[in-house]
């Protein structure tokens, strides 16, 4: 034994040996620094298995205080690190060599480490139990004090891992370290000095408790219970060292329970056990249910989780009694208490039933919980825990303990704060308990929620009272107080939010403390808002310097989410609650809703202070990503706040109206100063920012985000204005909305008027204009001419009737059109403003026929149409004379040259979007004026485009002329704008208009094939046209599209596919920009997908007496031609881009599955590229990509089985299928990713095995030899023999019922095969 430490140190400090042969390729560099060399040698020794037990011998030598003279120079820190690495090495080697260790050795080592971790070694040393001079101990070596915590924790962690490894019968060899009977691994075990090491461990620690026999696990928890309970009787012990010893052992015992629960809870992470996922699921299941493993649960059966639950709850009860009896805590109590609370929290957090789920279902569930948030927060413990969890005495005691801990004067604030935080986390877990297994009825749910809510409210009210008293003190004392309370307030508010989400308003409203709860939410919210404003004023708007801003914002967000959950509760929103729900709504309206007014005022004021600071300091704007994140967070916060405001719409509208009345005079005065010169001042910026924030408040309160849905008035707004609520109230509410909308129109008009006169004046804000347009884009489509049958209020009164008449709606429509017209003509380069303008017009046009009729009758909208007719197709460099000449063709509108020149400056893309709006709005067939306007807009595109085409054909214009190229780009965009108008009335007219121009559009590729911008524009145009209208095209239109697309793709491929080089940058921040460079490839792939749809193929294939159809083969030829051109581009670098990858594999998977014979006939180089991409895709992280790839691979294999189509390629490369089979096994089947692609992998596996069964057997042998372990090789061969039967392979390519039966049979067998193989191949 003596000299083990010196030997280990010598090994760790030695340079690695110089490798020879193939091993030199993986050898480490010889210039490693000392730390890197140490870790390399440690890893090498661990991986070697430590056959001489050097780690354990060194540990025993150091613990005994012995060692040779060579170790006397080791410092205390070095000794600590060496001890830690020895324990880590023992864990690694023992778990990896488990089957080769004797039972008694494993038991002894496990219990020895457990005892050392508890601190029993120190006790034996104090008693003098060193048993002579073991290993040189007692011969004058330096004395050793208590072990460092890092070492004791490592010992306990290692012991916990060994308990898990031997908790149940080993999956491979049925070896259990807890039994004394015979076992299958006895032949593998060998003593090789293990009994000697056992004797040394026993000699070093004679007081060590050894847990043996069938009840070893029960004995372990009984021992832990005693150790923890002894600490709570330590007050009777007079000897202070003995008292501290008991408390320390109890703390470490609780820590061990926590570690043990954590080991068994680790379902998805192995932790270096080198065991299969089945082993971890089995351990999880047996720890939760007992030896029955959940399949046959016996009432009263012992299981580890229940034991941990009893241990934690018994310890919690003792802790609560001690703290309440003593009126506070000591530092030792807090350390022990924190560990006990951690155990209870971890036990409650257990994922019940997870071990019985399918692995793929577990991964999907985890992904949904991560994405969905709240659904994964609720806890559903078993029925047998009911008596403990819903015990009123227990709940009350926890809050009394919490109050005692947070006010305890006998310990440091840090220790007190940590224990209080752990108590809050436990209470938060208790707030999440739900399920029929725990609660029998709503009465029990209400009683349980009542205890938690009242306890939480007591603490919050205490905090509020303390801060009121401290407000009279110095500001510094108040700031320090608030800083200490930050985490506590966030946790308490989160607890109330969790209770609201868990028990719903219906149950909470029946509690006696419900009104108190609402009052507390409001009081805490107002206090947090006011304190935030005070802090912002202190730093003069520098929000980055605000103290406590993060926790205040988090707490306010929790309060808003809580109010949002109550306001949106189905029981309140529906009629199910009756009068009871109405009473709750009144309580929410009178108690909680006033918080909305305070929120609006404070939030507005803080934004103004921040804007003043930025304008004064000349601060730079945030970068684009941070601005987007900030705007997203603000929108989310205001949406939650809007739910709060809708609890009392009238009061909320009064607040916003009052704030707007205060802001509006200053804002209008600012606009009046436009044209007087000068720069933007901080005061001006504050006025504009205040107006913008108020607009956001109004927009979120009165409207919802209806992207992808029919715009509608929020139900709460409709209900607030419903006449049945009272004539006076409903009229006041509707009147306040109308008044505020009128004020907003006045502001928008005032700024637009000044923009028309002084567009460059700094007093005029594009951001304010964008916000105004954003508001009208959300408000106008919902409120103008609403359909009463879309609402529960069928009477049609209130706000539904306010804008329901055409004579009232017409001025609003005209106002919106005028606003857009001004910005089109005078701010044409403000992209965000233009985007909102076109969004507003398009939203109105989609509203329906009545609104479209009102738009056409608007003079401003008519002027927009006239402007498009005049200069929509004119280049930006067109002269004023060309503009004046075009004005003579204007359709009856009074246009000035200034207006025309302004509209002419619109970017081409914005002109295209305006054209989309015009086509949709002018699409009513029964309106003569609409038809005239539509035809005029379309002719403004068609006629000049025909002129350009003729000029190019007749060579009157050179194709490389800059003006011609610019015109081509413009017309492509304009035709794209027309194509996107598919939501117009009777959209079949678009294909009728587009079809004659398709040959000319595709013909542009003849002239501009070198210009990638024009190529991409044409591909996008054809893609959008096929996507939008392929279902409504006639046969002739479909054939024309097919012909034009074929020409387009041929010219595109000749210039941009054959010799193009793909570059893939590695920088993450450049990936998006890099992907944009290949949008043309993406558009080409999408176009090919649309051309391959069934509807298009069927329609094209029809023939008539006067018109021949297009054969399906011709269409597939074009698609495969396009695919051949794209294949060389789709390198693995380009396939890293998600969107390109998804569409590419969607196309390839469909075509390979539908027309495998054509792909088998591709030239070898192209076929090899296709096959490599399929092999790349089958292990892709995207399950859809993998499914498409595997289906394609299966189709190729089945086609070869059927027709031997790949024989020519096999003559070039004979191992095509061998490579596919090998990679399928290694990269998919034997990997954890298999679960979300199990079925397609099996359907690819079967035909690949059937192609050449003897070669496949050879591949299986190659794979099995790589496993090393003979037992694993045997099990793998057995699994393959059970999976693949020779008679099954002969029927793989069969059609009809027989083939389907074989595939179904193999599908079930493959599922069993994968589970079996993963049980011993996939190690964690």
Automatic annotation (TrEMBL):
Q: Name one GO biological process term.
A: protein transport
| InterPro entries the record matches | ARM-like, ARM-type_fold, XPO4/7-like
Protein family according to the UniProt entry: Belongs to the exportin family.
Q: Where in the cell is it found?
A: Cytoplasm; Nucleus
Which organism was this protein described from?
A: Discostella pseudostelligera
A GO-annotated cellular component: nucleus
Q: Is Nucleus tagged as a keyword? A: yes
- Where is it mostly found? cytoplasm
**What keywords appear on the UniProt entry?**
Cytoplasm, Nucleus, Protein transport, Transport
Question: Which lineage?
Answer: Eukaryota, Sar, Stramenopiles, Ochrophyta, Bacillariophyta
Name the UniProt record assigns to this protein: Exportin-4
| Signal peptide feature range | none
């Amino acid at each position: 034994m003596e000299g083990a430490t010196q030997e280990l140190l010598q090994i760790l400090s030695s340079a690695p040996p110089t490798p020879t042969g193939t091993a030199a390729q993986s050898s480490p560099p010889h210039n490693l620094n000392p730390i890197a060399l140490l870790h390399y040698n440690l890893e090498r020794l661990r991986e070697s298995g430590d056959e001489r037990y050097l780690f354990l011998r060194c540990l025993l030598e150091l613990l005994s205080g012995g060692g040779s003279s060579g170790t006397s120079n080791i410092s205390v820190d070095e000794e600590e690190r060496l001890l830690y690495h020895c324990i880590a090495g023992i864990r690694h080697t023992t778990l990896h060599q488990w089957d080769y260790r004797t039972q008694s050795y494993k038991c002894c080592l496990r219990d020895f480490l457990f005892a050392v971790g508890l601190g029993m070694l120190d006790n034996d040393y104090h008693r003098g139990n060193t048993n002579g001079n073991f290993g040189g101990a007692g011969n004058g070596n330096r004395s050793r004090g208590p072990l460092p915590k890092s070492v004791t924790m490592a010992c306990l962690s290692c012991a916990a891992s060994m308990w898990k490894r031997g908790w149940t019968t080993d999956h491979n060899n049925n070896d259990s370290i807890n039994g004394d009977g015979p076992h299958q691994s006895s032949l593998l075990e060998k003593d090789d000095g293990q009994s000697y090491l056992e004797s040394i461990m026993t000699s070093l620690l004679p007081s060590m408790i050894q847990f043996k026999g069938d009840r070893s696990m029960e004995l372990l928890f009984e021992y832990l219970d005693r150790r923890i309970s002894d600490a709570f009787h330590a007050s009777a012990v007079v000897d202070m060292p003995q008292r501290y010893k008991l408390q320390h052992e109890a703390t470490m015992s609780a820590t061990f329970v926590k570690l043990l629960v954590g080991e068994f809870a680790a379902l998805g992470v192995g932790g270096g056990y080198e065991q299969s996922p089945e082993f971890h699921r089995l351990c999880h299941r047996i720890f939760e249910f007992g030896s029955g493993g959940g399949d046959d649960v016996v009432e009263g059966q012992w299981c580890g989780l229940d034991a941990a639950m009893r241990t934690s709850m018994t310890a919690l009860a003792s802790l609560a009694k001690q703290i309440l009896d003593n009126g506070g805590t000591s530092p030792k109590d807090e350390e022990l208490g924190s560990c006990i609370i951690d155990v209870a929290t971890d036990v409650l957090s257990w994922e019940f039933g997870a071990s019985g789920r399918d692995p793929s279902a577990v991964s999907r569930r985890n992904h949904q919980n991560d994405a969905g948030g709240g659904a994964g927060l609720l806890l559903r413990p078993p029925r047998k825990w009911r008596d403990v969890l819903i015990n009123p005495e227990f709940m009350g005691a926890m809050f009394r303990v919490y109050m005692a801990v947070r006010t305890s004067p006998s310990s440091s604030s840090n220790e007190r704060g940590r224990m209080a935080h752990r108590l809050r986390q436990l209470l938060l877990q208790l707030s999440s308990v739900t399920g029929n297994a725990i609660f029998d009825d709503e009465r029990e749910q209400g009683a349980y929620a009542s205890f938690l809510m009242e306890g939480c409210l007591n603490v919050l009210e205490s905090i509020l009272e303390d801060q009121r008293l401290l407000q009279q003190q110095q500001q510094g004392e108040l700031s320090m107080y608030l800083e200490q309370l930050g985490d506590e307030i966030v946790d308490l508010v989160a607890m109330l939010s969790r209770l609201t989400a868990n028990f719903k308003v219906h149950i909470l409203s029946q509690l006696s403390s419900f009104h108190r709860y609402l009052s507390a939410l409001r009081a805490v919210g107002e206090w947090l808002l006011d304190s935030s404003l005070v802090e912002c004023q202190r730093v003069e708007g520098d929000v980055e310097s605000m103290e406590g801003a993060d926790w205040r914002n988090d707490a306010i967000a929790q309060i808003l989410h809580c109010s949002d959950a109550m306001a949106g509760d189905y029981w309140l929103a529906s009629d199910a609650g009756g009068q009871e729900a109405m009473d709750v709504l009144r309580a929410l309206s009178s108690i909680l809703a006033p918080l909305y007014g305070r929120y609006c005022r404070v939030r507005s004021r803080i934004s103004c202070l921040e804007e003043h600071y930025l304008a004064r300091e000349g601060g730079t704007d945030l970068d684009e990503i941070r601005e987007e994140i900030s705007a997203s967070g603000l929108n989310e916060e205001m949406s939650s706040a809007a739910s709060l405001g809708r609890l009392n719409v009238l009061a909320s509208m009064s607040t916003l109206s009052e704030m707007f009345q205060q802001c509006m005079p200053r804002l209008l005065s600012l606009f009046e100063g436009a044209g007087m010169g000068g720069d933007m001042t901080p005061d001006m910026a504050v006025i504009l920012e205040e107006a913008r924030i108020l607009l956001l408040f109004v927009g979120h309160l009165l409207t919802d985000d209806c992207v992808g849905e029919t715009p509608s008035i929020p139900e709460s707004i409709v209900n607030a204005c419903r006449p049945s609520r009272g004539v006076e109230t409903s009229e006041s509410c509707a009147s306040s909305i109308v008044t505020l909308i009128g004020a907003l129109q006045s502001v928008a008009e005032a700024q637009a008027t000044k923009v028309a006169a002084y567009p460059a004046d700094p007093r005029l804000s594009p951001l304010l204009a964008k916000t105004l347009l954003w508001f009208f884009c959300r408000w106008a489509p919902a409120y103008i001419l609403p359909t009463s049958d879309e609402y529960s209020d069928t009477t049609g009164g209130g706000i539904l009737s306010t804008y329901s008449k055409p004579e009232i709606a017409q001025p609003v429509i005209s106002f919106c059109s005028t606003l857009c017209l001004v910005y089109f003509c005078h701010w044409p380069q403000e992209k965000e403003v233009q985007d909102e303008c076109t969004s507003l017009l398009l939203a109105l046009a989609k509203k329906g026929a009545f609104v479209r009729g009102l738009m056409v009758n608007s003079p401003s909208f008519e002027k927009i149409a006239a402007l498009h007719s005049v200069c929509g197709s004119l280049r930006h460099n067109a002269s004023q004379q060309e503009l004046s000449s075009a004005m003579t063709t204007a359709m009856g509108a009074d246009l000035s040259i200034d207006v025309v020149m302004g509209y002419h400056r619109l970017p081409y893309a914005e002109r295209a979007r305006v054209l989309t709006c015009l086509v949709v709005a002018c699409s009513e067939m029964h309106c003569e004026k609409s038809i005239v306007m539509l035809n005029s807009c379309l002719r403004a595109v068609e006629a000049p485009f025909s002129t350009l085409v003729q000029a190019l054909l007749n060579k009157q214009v050179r194709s490389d002329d800059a003006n011609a190229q610019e015109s081509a780009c413009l017309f492509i965009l304009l035709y794209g704008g027309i194509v996107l108008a598919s939501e117009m009335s009777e959209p079949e007219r678009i294909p009728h208009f587009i079809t004659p121009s398709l040959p000319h559009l595709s013909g542009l590729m003849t002239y501009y094939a070198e210009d990638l911008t024009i190529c991409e524009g044409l591909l996008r145009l054809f893609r959008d046209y096929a996507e939008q209208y392929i279902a409504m095209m006639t046969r002739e239109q479909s054939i024309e599209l097919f012909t034009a697309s074929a020409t387009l793709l041929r010219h595109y491929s000749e210039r941009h596919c054959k010799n193009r080089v793909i570059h893939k940058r590695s920088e993450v921040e450049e990936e998006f920009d890099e992907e944009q460079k290949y949008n043309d490839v993406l558009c080409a792939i999408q176009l090919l997908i649309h051309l391959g749809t069934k509807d298009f193929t069927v329609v094209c294939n029809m023939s008539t007496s006067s018109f021949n159809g297009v054969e399906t083969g011709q269409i597939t030829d074009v698609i495969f031609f396009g695919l051949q051109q794209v294949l060389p581009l789709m390198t693995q670098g380009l396939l890293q881009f998600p969107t390109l990858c998804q569409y590419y594999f969607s196309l390839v998977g469909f075509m390979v599955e539908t027309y495998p014979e054509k792909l088998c006939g591709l030239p070898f180089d192209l076929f090899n590229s296709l096959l490599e991409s399929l092999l790349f895709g089958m292990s892709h992280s995207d399950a859809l990509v993998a499914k498409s790839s595997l289906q394609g691979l299966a189709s190729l294999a089945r086609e070869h089985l059927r027709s031997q189509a790949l024989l020519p390629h096999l003559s070039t490369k004979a191992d095509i299928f061998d490579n596919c089979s090998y990679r399928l096994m290694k990269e998919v089947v034997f990997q954890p990713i298999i679960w979300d692609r199990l079925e397609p992998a099996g359907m690819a596996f079967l035909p690949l095995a059937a192609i050449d069964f003897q070669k496949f057997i050879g591949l299986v042998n190659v794979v099995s030899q790589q496993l090393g372990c003979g037992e694993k090789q045997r099990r793998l061969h057995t699994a393959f023999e059970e999976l693949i039967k020779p008679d099954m392979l002969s029927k793989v390519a069969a059609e009809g019922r027989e083939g389907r039966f074989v595939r179904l049979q193999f599908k079930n067998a493959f599922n069993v095969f994968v589970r079996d193989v993963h049980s011993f191949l996939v190690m964690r």
